[in-house]
Amino acid sequence: MYEFDYHKPVDVAGALETSGGSDDGLFLAGGQTIITVMKQRLAMPSDVIDLNAIDDLCGIRVKEDVISIGAMCRHADVASHSDVRRLIPGLADLAGKIGDPHVRNRGTLGGSIANNDPAADYPAAVVALGATVHTNLRDIAAGDFFTDLFETALKDSELIIRVTFPVPEKSAYEKILNPASRFAMVGVFVSQSVAGVRVAVTGAGPCVFQLPEMEDALMRSFSASALEKISINPGGLNSDLHGSAEYRAHLIGVAARRAVTNAC
Amino acid sequence: MEKSAIGKSVRRTEDFRFLTGQGKYIDDIRLENMAYAVVLRSSHAHATITAIDTAEAEAMEGVSLIVTAQHWMAEGYGTIPSKSATRNSIDGTPFREPPRHCLAIDRVRYVGEPVALVVAETLSAARQAMEMISVDYEPLDPVTDPVKALEHGAPQIWQDIPGNLCLDFELGDRDGTEKAFANADHVVSLDLVNNRVTAVPIEPRGAIADYDPETDRFVLYNATQNVHANRDTFAEKVLHIPVEKLHHIAPDVGGGFGAKNGAYPEPPLILHAARKLGRPVKWINDRAESFLSDTHGRAQSSRVKLALDKDGTFRALRVETIGDLGAFCATVGPFTCTGGSARTQGGPYAFPAMYYTSRAAFTNTAPTDPYRGAGRPEATYQVERIIEYAATTLGFDPIELRRKNLMSEKMLPLKTCMGLDIDCGNFPAVFEQTLELTDREGYAARVNASTAAGKRRGFAIAPYLECTGGAPREYAGVRFHADGSVHLAVGSQSTGMGHETALPQILAAQLGISQDRVQYIQADTEATPHGGGHGGSRGLELGGNAVGQSAGMVVDKAKAFAAAHLETEIDDLSFEDGLFRAQSTNRSMSMDEVISASFADDLPAGFEPGFLDTGSSFERGIISIPNGCHAAEVEVDPQTGDVRIDGYWVVDDFGTIINPMLADGQVMGGIVQGIGQALTENITYDNDSGQLLSGSLVDYALPRADMIPRMVIGYYEDAPTKKNPLGVKGAGEAGCVGAPPTIINAILDALRPDGVNHIEMPATPHRIWQQLRHAKSAA
Amino acid sequence: MPVVSLTVNNKPVSKDVAPNTLLVQFLRDELGLTGTHVGCDTSQCGACVIHLDGAPVKSCTLLAIQADQCAVTTIEGLAPEGGGLHPMQQAFREHHGLQCGFCTPGMVMTAVALARTTPHLAEADIRHGLEGNLCRCTGYQNIVDAVLAGSQAMRETK
Predict the structure, then answer these.
(1) What pLDDT shows up at residue B471?
(2) Could you tell me the residue range of the domain that residue C25 belongs to?
(3) A170-262: what fold?
(4) Staple partner for C95: which of A145, B134, B202, C145, CB 3.0–4.6 Å?
């Protein structure tokens, strides 16, 4: 790992000030991705700003029918939180399937979505639940947040504070694992609420995307059989050692149907 | 303390230190004034090196030494020889062996090949400096497929080796086989790939070299599985020094599976550096470097043919293989796909004729060497796949077809067409015993339940034949100390198999003393005059028998002493449970007492101090024939291609079982490695660039706990071998010999109703889905 | 250079540490606690698992400085003061849950945490709970048996 200066601010203002003053600073959340990248000498930040001491970024709160999850909430905490499990079981289930127990004890919601790895799990939930990403500067709707492979709408001076998830009527996440990395080969999050049905897919393309054709079909009839005839175009989907684009296109259908069947 | 006995599951001595973090692995060793080395490795699969500029790197802070090919060649160092037991092609000409220097000279031939060594005060300084070395490569076309490498027009990897062919090989009865095929009622043929895999011991390779200028002697601590043979290679062949000048020690080693057996280029590089700098130098791979530079395993493509009668009797087996050696002949190298894959051809089946041919090719990939099983998994895979294929295409019941053709006990002893001496075994009994474990009666109901849930269930049974190998000679030395301890030094080596417990168990049982007194020493060239290290499941067959032999000699000496002490003749004494008893007077003396008395100042005439200390060499006569049978049930999800193994059963014939718990451990570990090869593991090189695509655990999928079912293990102990005094047959590799065809045939059994009749390893969900889709569109 | 102050195996430690030092390097190189092992570079293998304030984490994916003010427990700190083995260590020995021993420290640390947080562990829970720990030697079955027995023993000695 290259050398860097280390900072551990106690509040958001401190974090932003340090970040603003550094040549090439980066925020350290759970570290499960960034520390590995730095170990492989693929990143050389001048400064590392550790967010793990900032209380304002923590906490899971329920208000009316919205769950607010702090950017620094660990996957393990989201997975085991009684309100999340009760109100958005798909989200708790997703968090419990990320990585492995050790990763879940450190990895965070904010870190995951800020990185926007194409095979990360959280982006599917954020999009399918119509969540809002609250930063120090503004509120970004899920649909505007994830822009491209490893890219988001976040500006350099912008820090995610929390993400708010409206509580749906039903939700589920079906993940088909990459056997080596245990990332999502394909992950489909389905949510049904008064606002409608959303189906979001991760792992299959360069960035999370929705499936309007499936959403329409499910709004007419929320059942796996409603999706039987829908086939996914493999164009633009990921193809690698572990699966072709055609295979991923096929898995999207399988995962979507299973998610709908299991939605609760 | 309780005296141990053969056949008991004695708990392991070594566990105390491993469980409390007190193990001493290579990365745990710190020497004073130690410097750190990293290896600059080729980023090209095939290229000429036109220039290396190390000036900037050398000027960096903390850098002590940089070694390039120019420096290396100026020292006059030698190359690492290949010790393949198959030495010649069919026409008698020697196998083509390219020079294996410790650094690439002028040309690189695989991604990961060492190009330079950088030594610095800290690991981080060494890595920083390594990044500043600039190498000018002129890329050449690589070839990564051994079949293509042998084709006309393929890139030439070695100037003097036309067509990239190292050697060709044949074994068996060519004419008999040809005749049998010509006259057979049925002939089936199948093309199979035994996929390239890598051992992935959780501990990467590493070593520390130290040099004492006053004595002109080296000490090499090395995560190796063979200290004696590699000492000889590094000293005599590479550094050109007498072997006595190199003290080679393996500390605790975190797994190896064959990948740590061979002679590698890094240790001589750091030995040179240690001498040049006059201080210890440490090198250790990270996992990415391991994937690039550990020798890989398997990597064979074969055409397999079976000739049968109308009634299913096997007439002949014909296997033609192309083996992938990688860019160099590694230590065993060409033997694996030639002699190593030929010996157990035909498995435990009665074949009137068999003929095996192979060609070993060079490719621009990492060198291949033995990986657990080393040729026998390949042979077992070939015969079991073709039998299953014959059964399903010709309409025979797969279980019946096997049962019908197994060699009966009455046929033994026999020598197979491949020259394998099968002395004993009861293959039909082992087969039936395995089948009985699998609850065949309940199978139909389980199939229905799977089908109702939208899944496919399949079953397969695969008997296997194994043979042992490795160095045929082993040494065991026993020394008694006044403090009551008994030091047992052996030349064989455990890297997790439990010899530290099993070998003292044998010694303690034979001497009739408490196992707690025995201190175990292995893997040190100064502890035993010679040693065969690890390999070919030789731990008990060689190490165990050497211990037994030396123990027997100690008992004889002790008996003589006891006779003198008890004032009787040696013939008058019985020895049982550690007690010498004079039949005539009923007076007795325990072994413990003899040992204590041997330290007395006034020894009787004819007994010198230390008279009990004994060392002896044991020679194996003929390799033994472990064998057994695997069976499995799988459930395939046709929607995703996912495979769940729902049952796994195995019965093994390992002869005498010294420590059942340790035997179970070897079987289960081997099975899971076999499952890994069958379902998830694959070393993949990009065909165009020769880059290693599966270069980390993010892409190379190792089995985890949640994909393994409960394995049921049984033993058949009614056919002990007389080939060695302990009656043991080697157990270490058997698990991964039997598992791959069992899993693949079970998957094919599950998918046959869908029209799938072939699949290659690894049978990943993606591949299974592709085969299902292919079958659907063909229908 | 910043200072990291923490307790390691119940003993206070305070040392200068370069920020780019991983926790596993700090434990092994600075404190000589070499029981925690490095087996990979992509956070898959789990040989480096330790407890950070009681939670099992991969020490290869944490900066040492991040453990400031925390309590770290390594494999060396598991056995009771005064000798003997922790019930989980004892169970691993009893059930032959280790062979080469290299993955073992991380495996045991994960197992202890799993046993503490999940009452009445069943085999499926254990196999799932070990998804972050790779073993190449044992085939996992004896490890599962060891964790079952160890968790039971831990409940009984509470």
Answers:
(1) 86
(2) 3-77
(3) Enolase-like; domain 1 (3.30.390)
(4) C145
What CATH number does the domain containing C106 carry?
1.10.150.120
Q: Where are the domains of chain A?
A: 1-54, 170-262
- Measured between beta carbons, the chain A residues lying within 8 angstroms of B684 are 241
Output the CA torsion B125→B126→B128→B132 (10° steps).
130
d(CA B179, CA C118): 66
B181, two tokens = 């095929």
Do the bridges between strand B114-120 and strand B35-41 make them parallel or antiparallel, or are there none, so unpaired?
antiparallel
Q: Do C8 and C69 fall into the same domain?
A: yes
**How does pLDDT run across C11-70, given as a tens digit for each residue?**
999 999 999 999 999 999 999 999 999 999 999 999 999 999 999 999 999 999 999 999
List the end-to-end C-alpha distance of chain B, in Å, as a whole number: 70
Q: What is the CATH number of domain A1-54?
A: 3.30.43.10
The beta-carbon neighbor of C100 closest among B22, B254, B705 is B254
- If we measure between CA atoms, which residue out of C73, C40, A1, A179 comes closest to residue B289? C40
Task: Report the C-alpha gap between C135 and C99 in whole angstroms.
Answer: 9
pLDDT attached to residue B658: 86
Paired sense of beta strands A47-50 and A25-28, if any: parallel
**Nearest Cα residue in chain C from A104:** C57
Strand order across the A170-177 sheet: A170-177, A184-193, A196-202, A209-210
Listing from the earlier edge strand, what are the strands of the sheet with A132-135? A60-63, A66-70, A160-166, A132-135, A139-141
Pair C111, C146 in one domain:
yes
Q: Provide the pLDDT confidence category of residue B643 given band limits of 50, 70 and 90.
A: very high
Distances from the Cα of B116 to the Cα of B44, B66, B330, B606, angstroms: 14, 7, 20, 60
Nearest to A254 among B639, B701, B764 (CB): B639
Q: What is the pLDDT of residues C66-122, one digit of tens each?
A: 999 999 999 999 999 888 999 999 999 999 999 999 999 999 999 999 999 998 899
| Best mutation target, B197, B766, B767, to test chain A (most A CBs within 10 A) | B766
Pick the last residue of a domain from C77, C96, C118.
C77
CB contact under 8 A, A101 and C129: yes
Q: What is the pLDDT of residue B537?
A: 83
Distance CA B257, CA B673 (A): 10
By C-alpha distance, which of C59, C61, C67 is closest to C35? Answer: C59
d(CA B114, CA B659): 42
As a whole number of angstroms, the distance between CA B675 and CA B107 comes to 37
Q: Which of A40, A180, A250 sits opposite B769 (nearest CB)?
A: A250
- CB atoms near residue A120 (< 10 Å): 24
Long-range Cβ contact pairs of A135-144 (< 8 A, separation 24 or more): A135/A159, A135/A160, A135/A161, A136/A12, A136/A16, A136/A161
Number of domains in chain C: 2
* B39 vs B32: CA distance, rounded Å: 22
Residue C15: CATH number of its domain: 3.10.20.30
Query: Which residues in chain B touch residue C105, judged by CB atoms under 8 angstroms apart?
Result: 21
* Weakest-pLDDT range from A90-94, B273-277, B486-490, B621-625: B621-625
Q: How far is CA A100 from the centre of its chain?
A: 16
Same domain, residue pair C65 and C95: no
Give residue B3's pLDDT.
47
Q: Which chains touch A (3 or more CB pairs under 8 A)?
A: B, C
Task: Work out the average pLDDT over B447-470.
Answer: 96
User: C110–A101: do the CB atoms touch at under 8 Å?
Assistant: yes
With beta carbons under 8 A apart, name residues in chain B contacting A180.
680, 697-702
Q: Which two tokens stand for residue B751?
A: 């998918």
Q: Is the pLDDT of residue B1 over 60?
A: no
